[in-house]
Structure formats: C-alpha cells, structure tokens
Queue: 2 jobs
Job 1
Amino acid sequence: IYINHSSINIVNCIIDNNYCAYVNSGGAIFIDTSNLKTVNIINCNITNNRAAGYGGAISARGASSNTPYVSIYNSILSGNTINNSKEQLHGQLINAYNSFIEDAVTGDFNAQENLIIQGVVFSNPGGTDFQLAANSVAINAGNLEYVADLLPKTDILGNPRINQNRIDIGAIEYQTDIISKITGKVVDEHGEAVTNFELYPGI
C-alpha cells in the first residue's frame, strides 16, 4: 500500500505476505506525506511482509517538522523483515499504542503506550487464519480510548468486536463460548414488542 500526501484510516485489516523491492519502501505500507495529514492503523494484522529497503511492515517519511503523523493502535506486527533481518517499522514519524510489535527496536519508531514485543499471539503460528491463541498476549490488551469512534461493532470475521469487556489487539477478536437464553418479550418504551434487534455480548 502506497500512501502519498493523504489522510486515511486503515481499520480491521489483514495485510500479509507481500514484498516491495523499492529501496525506501515498507514491505506492507509505504507512507510519504506531509505533517498536515494523518494516517491511523487500527486493529490490523500486518504480518510476514518483506522489504528491500526499510520497514518490513511500514516505512514512513516526509513530514518536514518531524512531528509524528502515523499512529498504530491495537495492532499486531510480526514476521516482517528487511533483507532477512527483523524490522517491523521504520520512521520516527510513527507512534504505536497498545500493540504487539515483534522484537521491536523502539529507536526505529515511537512507543507510546503498552507496547508488547514478545509472547504467544496466534493459535497457529505461520498459518493464515490468524485466530488468537487461548493464552495470547493480545487478548484484552487493546484500548478504545483513541479509536472508539472509528471501529465497527464487529471484527474482520463479523464477530463481536468486544467479547470480554475489553478489546483485543489485532483484526480478529478472541471469541469465548457464549451460551445465552433469552425468554419473555422485548418491548420498547411504549410497551410495543420489538422484533428486530441486535445483541452484542460484552459491549
């Protein structure tokens, strides 16, 4: 993905197994813009991408004032490399919040809040389903403070975005078994029966 002088929100996405040969590139996302724009990456998985230049996952450049304009929230970056060496991010113009960034070197970007760099994440490491393991460090490790207005109610698979009262890191929310039984009748404030409604556990 090449972002050139644009503001954009990338939400609930999986970007996996890409290669960019451009010298100043990021393997998944290359951002070249000004400090008048903002790029938000929210609850995404950016995995197993490769770059010939900088930032196996993301490289950002171009803000003349050196003020960070790229923000990563509640996202998983793992398995991304440059020239067979691990490097997830490149650019002091990038802030990361409440994210898993594998073996991160914080000098390559700005770690803001609750950065996780090691631990179990996926139930099938190396696979392509990206389900979180039951003991994943990503479960309940996210934060809605900055992104509540930008997130849909469901994850990338259409499951409830929040399952255990706190958002997970990544594009796929861990789903525990939910057994519910609703009896009786749902009515509105006028006593009229409600026949069309949605129930989102944990929200």
Note: The mean pLDDT is 85.
Job 2
Amino acid sequence: ALVGEIHTAAEIRSVGADGGGVSARLVDGSEIRAEHGICTLPPWIAAALASPWDTAVTRALQTPVRFATGKIGLEYDRRFWETGDRILGGITTTDRGPTDIWYPSTGYLGNGGVLIGAYPFGPAADRFSRLDHDARTEVALTAGEEVHAPEYRQGLRSSLSVDWRTQPYSEGAGAEWPDYGVAYQRLLEHDLRVPCALHVAEP
C-alpha cells in the first residue's frame, strides 16, 4: 500500500537518483525524495526532463509519436435519444464531419444527460483542433441533426470540447510506437533507477 503524502499540482522539472533513492525537483524549487519512483509522464514530456537517464533512454523516449484526437461533450436537459429513439448506450457513426455520437451507458431515462458529440482521430482531429469551441459545437450539432433532428439542437444546455495535443502535461492523446524494437526494448531494461511506464493511457 502507498503511504505518505500525495502531492497534487506539483509540476516536475527534474528527476534524480543516487544511493539513497530517487528525487523529483518541482518548479517551486522544492524536492520530493523516495526509495523508488516510476515515471508515468508521456514519453515526449519525460524526455525533456533533466534526469539521470543516459542518451539512449532519452532517444528512446523521443521515439513514439503522439496521436491526435479530440472530443466534445454536449449536455441536454432531456434524454431524447432514449425516450424518442430508444437508443440506450452505444455509438452512432456518421459521415458528416469528424463526428461519432457516443451515448451514455448510465442514468437511463433520467432528466438529462451528456453525449459525446464528436470523437475524431487523425486528419479529422487535425481539422477539429483548428476550430474554436463554438465552431466545434456547430460541427457536432450539424452532424447530429442528421440522426436526431430537430431534437439534437433543442434543449442543449452546454458544451465542452478538448484537443489533447494542446493540454499541458499531456500534449497528445496517446503514444504510438513505430515498432517494438531497440528503443522500446531499451525502456524495458531494469537498470533504470526511475523506470518509465511505456503506455500513455488513451482518453
């Protein structure tokens, strides 16, 4: 079990390792020490830290490519997709822009709910990311009207969108390794005093 304090909002500038354990130096100049450490930062961010890793490790961390994706959530005052269209959970795929509609799998037949109104990847995510939030909302509503008109535009309470590549401490939705060759294998070796978690969680 983990013991001790959990530090939140603690941005790391460097990691270190010596005979007494491992350390992390924060942007405010303070230092946290422990017997062991695991780096779970995205590899492209970890590669930029001042660290005890050798050049081969740093190059390995720079190898994976961050992939693009975004999302927009649409909050409604009623669950018309359930009461009117009898859709309880699941996904509708459209060909109207970067749009898949993801329906919630909880709170069935309640008083309101949130849909994922768009979940683009690759080139579609690139186009989505260049839009401001209002334009992303309009793209999602226009596509959704093809499926649920006119309810899709009615009763919208609010919306929230995100492009993962612009998010601090993430700067991408996940890591794609071109192969599992030398770079990947270097990070599996157990001589690292601060080992790195290799897989960046998908959104």
Note: DSSP finds six helices and ten strands in the chain.
